[in-house]
Amino acid sequence: MEKNLREQAEATAKFNGFSSLQEVVRVLLQKFARKELYIDVATQEERLSPKAERRYAKIVEDIKKGKNVTKTMSLNELFNTLNS
Questions:
Q1: Cα dist. 82→61, 70, 71 in Å?
Q2: What is the per-residue pLDDT for 39?
Q3: Which alpha helices (DSSP H) does the chain contain, by range?
């Protein structure tokens, strides 16, 4: 763990009345084990650039039209097509 991160976490723990960072972890783990604590890791949606959006829209349109699409009936046929 980075020293700076640990120091910030320890300061926040003491500010919130915990005696140590270990106590914070112990309390969190106890609550988590009793299903009293739920963790939700939200991720920010990635946005494509306008150029990439146009590119992928064209690819999807081509697929819908059957343009630049190859169909194979077996795995061997697929690999032969990819290797040709």
A1: 22, 10, 11
A2: 87
A3: 3-15, 21-33, 50-65, 75-83
Nearest CA among 44, 9, 42 for reference residue 28:
9
- Output the tens digit of pLDDT for each of the chain's 84 residues: 899 999 999 999 999 999 999 999 999 999 999 999 988 888 888 899 999 999 999 999 999 999 988 889 999 999 999 998
- Can you list the pairs that 14-17 forms with residues at least 24 positions away whose Cβ atoms lie under 8 Å? none
Angle ∠(57,61,64) on CA atoms, nearest 5: 140
Instruction: State how far the Cα of 11 lies from the Cα of 3, in Å rounded to an integer.
Output: 12
CA 29, 34, 36, 42 dihedral sign is: positive
Q: Locate tokens 């963790």: which residue? A: 39
